Amino acid sequence: xxxxxxxxxxxxxxxxxxxxLLWLGWRLFDGSDSRQQLKQxxxxxxxxxxxxxxxxxxxxxWQWWPRLALDYSxxxxxxxxxxxxxxxxxxxxxxxxxxxxxxxxxxMWFLNYHSVMDMLTTMLSVGLLLQLSAICKxxxxxxx
Length: 144
What we know:
flat; single chain
């Protein structure tokens, strides 16, 4: 019974993140001053989701994680992407949002969905590619 409740909480986490982001996006879009911020966050979110799923497809083809006896966690990658977007939109609520994300990771570990190394390597990979894309964007803007 407890495992079913915990599994339900883990399954609801990502949809709740999406609902929060949609609500925040609606609030941002309501004010014309914030449209640029909404565009930036939407672009960031699309890029991070694209990276998450691109890594999944690449891992399925080249088997990077299984070679290390690990498992790429698409759930962790998508939740991490959503968490980073929430982190940008709600600066005053960062502590609460990151604690919720850490609880989600703990639930995934508790339910034996993924190991700590699965989740850490997934977040590190997504985070590094996002950072690389930000560096490339800054470099491109500097050359104009």
